[in-house]
Amino acid sequence: MSSEHRLIETTEAAIGRPVTVSSLAADLRALGVEEGMTLIVHSAMSSLGWVAGGAQAVIEALQRAVGPAGTLVMPTHTAHLSEPSCWRNPPAPESWWDAIRAEMPAFDPDATPVYGMGAVPETFRRMAGVRRSLHPHASFAAWGAHAERVLAGHGERPEALGEPLGDASPIGRVYELGGYVLLLGVTHENNTSLHLAEYRANYGPKPVETCWAPIRVDGERRWASYVDISFDTDDFERIGEEFERGTGLARIGRAGLATARLLPQRPLVDFAVRWMEQHRGERTRDL
């Protein structure tokens, strides 16, 4: 039995009908998504059930839910465009490194596919009216009323690639706009907004790393480097759970077959900053 056959059977057993644009939009409205919202979306396509039209239908449902006055934002990251000696899962043979460095294509916002983030952001970045930022590792795609503001300047200057998820990033712009985080069938481990708290929180020492990426400058391909903190998602799930339990601000429901969470991003990030300053500081002192 194919995976799609199993998904059809699971969906039929759970809700007795396919998941559609209309049903998903209704689920999102019931969850609390409103017209005019700025929404950063993280998703797992397979968790939604069998969707008529696949990822395109999911995006159209999201667009319908926020309306023309709203804004959709998705991470379209490309961590594979990186220095091969740093690869760990899986590693590349050392004998390959020079060839990879010489031939790895430069990041192209139109051509470079999303890496390891699923079908929805990969489909989203190619849809009409969607723009993508220029950071070679941590790009975002956006559609809607505030798309230009959300993406402005992100990765446009090679000398300013650092802190790609910081205050000047699309994550920071969503914070400024009072936006929301939508988790569709994924956990807080996938919640990119929590990285903004890693920059802001006062704890230490924060490990740093040098990152390398192939880019184009004046039409020429070259490798660019920048220094960034070494992100740590090990406690993201705990932070999310304690935010939900302690604040009551999260809306939890269903979208298709998936568990969906809608969270106001600004209170979430502020909570995470305080949490990290307390608990990551404790963890550092214990080492």
Write the layout of secondary structure elements.
Blueprint lengths: L2 H13 L5 H11 L6 E6 L10 H13 L4 E5 L21 H7 L15 H6 L6 E2 L7 E5 L2 H5 L18 H7 L3 E5 L8 H8 L7 E10 L2 E10 L6 H12 L3 E5 L2 E7 H22 L1
Parallel strand pairs: 1-2, 1-5
Antiparallel strand pairs: 2-4, 3-4, 5-9, 6-7, 8-9
Helix pairs in contact: 2-3, 8-10
Quick summary:
The protein has 287 residues and is of the alpha+beta class.
Describe the structure.
The protein is built from ten helices and nine strands. It is of the alpha+beta class and 287 residues long. The chain has one domain. Helix 2 (21-31) crosses helix 3 and helix 8 (193-200) crosses helix 10. It is globular.
**Relative strand content:** 15-25%
- Kindly, what is the distance between the CA atoms of the first and last residues, rounded to a whole number of angstroms? 50 Å
- Summarize model confidence as the mean pLDDT: 95
Number of strands: 9
Question: What is the number of domains?
Answer: 1
- Overall geometry comes to globular
Order of helical and strand elements: HHEHEHHEEHHEHEEHEEH
Rounded radius of gyration (Å): 19 Å
| Low-pLDDT ranges | none
Largest sheet: 7 strands, mixed
Structural class comes to alpha+beta
* Strand numbers in spatial order across the main sheet: 3-4-2-1-5-9-8
- Percent helix, as a range, is 25-40%
Number of helices: 10
Assembly type: single chain
